[in-house]
Write a structure and sequence with these properties.
single chain; about 375 residues; TIM Barrel; 2 domains; 7-stranded parallel sheet; 4-stranded antiparallel sheet; 15 strands; about 30% helix
Length: about 375
């Protein structure tokens, strides 16, 4: 396969409800869509970077430049045996995995479409045909508002609740959630809001039988997480600091975690995501698919990823309507009353694109090649 053109589109989509983490509150998303064209067919990817460099060093503006000036020129016109070839062609670009992953996932989608097969099958998935779903609930304006949102999501059938925490919105809030919902699958996501000096405080979370505490310490740390894990009964889940299979191997050796969250953008696409998955599986560490407030393309890619065998925990892949009044794919991603998403068998990522809507929300576009 050979890429003839790469089209970039930045779209702007308002969220149904604001989403707040320990580092920011988001009301709307600026998302880059990547269209990889070859042999008369298009594959689509989505850049999962946020609007600001707070989750990691990337943001929408940086991803556009990296894609246009560095990633696309290294892949355009090259003979690709498989989509796996994209990662090494761009590996010497330091960081910027989300920009790289936007194109890499588009090429996987293209390869699946050229072969007339679903994306999940192309990446070697298929261990399940329904994806167990959880939801991620941001920091709210009040505890009562949080409790109401949790009740709504449980009524919708979601199998696991993830609540964001930060200093001042943690132990007491988790306690109230547990008092209201004593038996639900519950986890807390800190997004790197704490340090080892907070160990005694974080140990209080052991009282609430959480599934996991996600990335409590620095976004680039593994060593301190190992020290913290040794002092906690609750499993630590690593997120931001696992950017490659090598990082996963280091975390395993140091016993820094009991669970790993895999995000396509964070590890530069499907190829490396599969390697992280395999490292964790060999170590007996379960994984799950994290979310980055994706639109329909990225959401569909996450569904495909979560069909790999070691994705045994409910991920953050949820229905489109939780985030968007109208998604960019047709039909939107929907959940069953069982709290699952049924995997589709259509070629590529499995959904049709709503081109008219995409054009209406595009704020800039550019074609390379």
């Amino acid at each position: 396969m050979k890429l003839e053109r790469i089209a970039l589109r930045q779209i702007r989509m308002p969220l149904v409800h604001f989403f707040e983490t320990s580092f920011s509150r988001t009301y709307e998303r600026d998302i880059i869509l990547v269209e990889a064209q070859g042999d008369g067919v298009s594959g689509w990817g989505e850049v999962t970077a946020g609007e600001n460099p707070f989750y990691n060093e990337e943001w929408t503006g940086s991803a556009w430049l990296i894609l246009r000036d560095y990633v696309a020129p290294r892949v355009l016109g090259r003979e690709l045996r498989t989509a796996e070839d994209v990662y090494p062609l761009t590996a010497h670009i330091r960081g910027h995995n989300m920009a790289r992953g936007g194109l890499e996932t588009a090429v996987w989608d293209l390869a699946a479409r050229l072969d007339g097969m679903p994306l999940w099958k192309k990446i070697g998935g298929g261990s399940r045909h329904e994806i167990p779903c959880g939801v991620s609930i941001g920091i709210q304006d009040s505890v009562e508002q949080l409790l109401e949102k949790i009740a709504e999501e449980l009524a919708a059938g979601y199998q696991r609740i993830k609540m964001k925490i930060k200093p001042g919105w943690d132990v007491d809030v988790v306690r109230q959630v547990r008092e209201r919902f004593p038996a639900i699958k519950l986890m807390a996501d800190a997004n790197s809001a704490y340090t080892l000096a907070d160990t005694a405080h974080l140990q209080k979370l052991d009282d609430f039988y959480l599934m996991m505490i996600e990335q409590p310490l620095s976004h680039d740390d593994i060593i301190d997480h190992a020290e913290l894990q040794a002092r906690l009964k609750t499993p630590i889940c690593l997120d931001e600091c696992i950017r490659s299979a090598h990082h996963a191997e280091q975390a395993v050796k140091l016993r820094a975690c009991g669970i790993i969250n895999i995000k396509l953008g964070r590890v530069a696409g499907f190829g490396e995501a599969r390697h992280v998955h395999d490292v964790a599986q060999a170590a007996g560490i379960p994984v799950w698919c994290g979310g980055m407030l994706e639109a329909g393309v990225g959401r569909a890619h996450n569904v495909a990823l979560a069909t790999l065998p070691n994705f045994v925990l409910p991920g953050d892949v949820s229905a489109s309507k939780r985030y968007w009044k109208r998604d960019i794919i047709q039909p939107p991603v929907e959940t069953t009353p069982r709290g699952t998403i049924e995997v589709r068998d259509e070629p590529g990522f499995g959904y049709a694109l709503d081109h008219d809507y995409i054009r209406s929300i595009t704020v800039r576009e550019e074609t390379i090649g």
